[in-house]
Write a structure and sequence with these properties.
This protein is an all-alpha fold and 82 residues long. It has one domain (2-70). It is built from 4 helices and no strands. α1 (2-29) packs antiparallel against α3.
Amino acid sequence: MRSRNSAAGLAMFFVYLALYGGFVGLNAFRPQLMELTPVAGLNVAILYGFGLILGALALSLIYGVVCARRPPESSPEQESHP
């Protein structure tokens, strides 16, 4: 079970790394794009930053749910029957 949790955490880390890499890449190579204000006077940098924060929270909640589940082979019903 520990390796399953580790694999899930590593996969989610790489998802977040890609999202953060996109943020850094836009800042480095297309800074003029980050200055656009598509919503309510907020620029893309602010919106993307808040998106990263919300994405991190969502990934942590998903990780918590994934880690709380028991794998099918170790369910209590199967352990009580030899």
